[in-house]
């Protein structure tokens, strides 16, 4: 079973969001003009998916909270909780170690940055699901349980030390899922600086 690539971000829900707020957010996401996903069918043909963003509000009756999924046929999709945002991708965790040299690396990060900005976040930490003992614990036992982003980040700093922030420093040859002793944080500072220059 492949290990999935996830991210967490420091976005939060106030609980006062209205339908108008969600429609505004979905409208901004639609303006990103991201490529939709595709897959190979049983006849070995590439099938392109089409569609736009929508939202789905899920109520948790036991603790009177809710979370919001922002969904569409895209490779990056956020789920928003009151204390944290969790971003799902269609990719495997190994991609993080391989994308730096790929042509579409810049596009992946720009899409990620724009989505994070729209949902109210400023940075992301990469996590993984099954087979990645340490990182999956932060995802499955904390992020999915609505533990605040800041608490998870602090706990990771205590366990791993300072995060990596340079993709070129990730070495695929040293990747061992059960023994990952690093965590990667992207604060998008380079993209934020470009935004600032464009707005001057």
Which percent range fits the helix content? 25-40%
In terms of DSSP E residues, the strand content is: 15-25%
Q: Average pLDDT value?
A: 88
* Run of helices and strands: EHEEEEEEHHEHHEH
Biggest β-sheet: strands ordered side by side in the sheet: 4-5-6-7-1-8-9
How many DSSP H or I helices?
Answer: 6
* Radius of gyration from CA coordinates: 17 Å
**What's the main sheet like?**
7 strands, antiparallel
The N- and C-terminal alpha carbons lie at a distance of 48 Å
Overall morphology: globular
Oligomer: single chain
**Unreliable segments of 5+ consecutive residues:** none
- Structural class, please? alpha+beta
Tell me how many strands there are: 9
